[in-house]
Amino acid sequence: MNRLKVTLAATALAVSSTGLLAAAPAQAAAACKGPTCNGQSPTKCQSDAVTVKDGKGNPVRVYLPGLAPGNSDWVDLRYSPSCRANWARLNPAVGNPGIGFDYYVYSTSGGTTRSASQYSELSPNYTEMVDGTGPAWICIDGNSETVCSQKF
After folding, report:
1. What is the pLDDT of residues 46-74, one digit of tens each?
2. How far is it, in rounded angstroms, from Cα 89 to Cα 151?
3. Around Cβ 11, how many Cβ atoms within 10 Å?
4. Rounded distance, CA 17 to CA 107, Å?
């Protein structure tokens, strides 16, 4: 029995000294971080993305002006903790009257305000990312009116 323990210990030592032991997989690195995400596609950071919530736990969301929420497209403020970036995501309403509009995401970090925009009739249904290390907010510009969320 002692001979078996010695043989197993010697084998383990030989394997570890040759580097054949597999290391634990490292967590995937973020595609970008904060300011380096400006202008990039959120597809790089969507795996841990969440819709930002206000102080009451409600999603940060703006609706197309002039339409009831049930009949209106809306835009959510999205955030990726790993990338520390924000973007706006369009959610088309069922029975949307087909009104085209622009939607935006803004962020302020280091004294600079960045923005990204997208037109509702174009693909994809999200804006490019902006630095998420400072306050961010979203807006919809349609029906000759602009509606914005608070800064979060």
Report:
1. 999 999 999 999 999 998 887 777 778 88
2. 16
3. 10
4. 51
Contact in structure between 87 and 127 (CB atoms under 8 Å): yes
Instruction: Tell me the C-alpha to C-alpha distance, in Å, between residue 130 and each of 14, 23, 25, 61.
Output: 50, 35, 30, 17
Residue 71 · residue 95 · CB < 8 Å? yes
Q: pTM (2 decimals)?
A: 0.76
Strand partners, 103: 118, 140
**Contact present, 65 and 143 (Cβ < 8 Å):** yes
Q: Residue 13: what pLDDT?
A: 37
Q: Which two tokens stand for residue 35?
A: 């300011």
